[in-house]
Amino acid sequence: MADRTRAHLRRSDAQRNRDHILQVAHDAFVESGATSLNEIAKRAGVGPGTLYRHFPTREALILAVYRRDVQRLVDSVADVLAIHPPLDAFRIWFHTLADYVRIKHGLGEALHSAAIKDAINETYAPVVTAVGKLIDACVAGEAMRPGLEPADVLLLMGFMWHVEAGPRGKRQAERITELVIDGLAAP
User: Fold this and answer.
1) Which residues, 6+ apart, have CB-to-CB distance to 74 below 8 Å?
2) Which of 8, 15, 61, 82 is most enclosed, with most CB atoms within 10 A?
3) In total, how many domains does the chain have?
4) Cα 11 to Cα 5: distance, rounded to the nearest angstrom
5) Beta-bridge partners for 185
6) Dihedral sign from CA coordinates of 89, 120, 102, 26
7) Cα separation, 98 vs 91, whole angstroms
8) What is the model's pTM?
9) CATH classification at residue 72
């Protein structure tokens, strides 16, 4: 029994370390996609060996941060809808998604690897499902017309991660978002 308890505590500690490293890596990649793994280990307060045990390569860490962030965003739909009217929730959620995509967590060359393509493919369905929930809430609130396909709306909203970074790009994204919403509006 004592061995099982110690093993459980080790697993819990390892999971806490992993989660902490992912948060620190997220913050570091927001600052600069070029942040080194050694710098991330230092900021996380763990040795390089601990970091490499969890994430043997830079790409593995980047992909883990990407998956974690997308899952958090997908999971946030209910909370955003609980706090905001549906159309505002739609705007907020897509602006957050655009920020994640624009930052790309230092994906750089990793964007062309098979691993990132697999990660994008595996996160696509949950994102489309989240978009569907936002659309359903907007339709129920009579802010959007019925019959919209979530995958089509996601593709349409993809403009958001192509605007330039900074205040000018943000204003442009806000203007275009309103144009899209006008097009999706209930008659």
Assistant:
1) 123, 126, 127, 129, 130
2) 61
3) 2
4) 10
5) 144
6) positive
7) 11
8) 0.78
9) 1.10.357.10
98 and 46 co-located in one domain: no
Shared-domain flag, residues 155 and 178: yes
Rounded Cα–Cα distance for residues 45 and 1 (Å): 31
Co-location of 128 and 175 in the same domain:
yes
One domain, residues 46 and 2? yes
What are the φ/ψ torsions at residue 48 (nearest 5 degrees)?
A: -55, -35
Residue 37 is part of which domain span?
1-56
On whether both 73 and 22 belong to a single domain, the answer is no
Longest CA span, the chain: 66
pLDDT tens-digit profile, the chain (187 residues): 556 655 555 567 778 889 999 999 988 887 877 888 999 999 999 999 989 999 998 888 988 988 898 899 999 999 999 999 999 999 999 988 887 776 664 555 555 566 667 777 888 899 999 999 999 999 999 999 999 999 999 999 888 878 887 889 889 988 999 999 999 998 8
Tell me if residue 162 falls in helix, strand or coil: coil
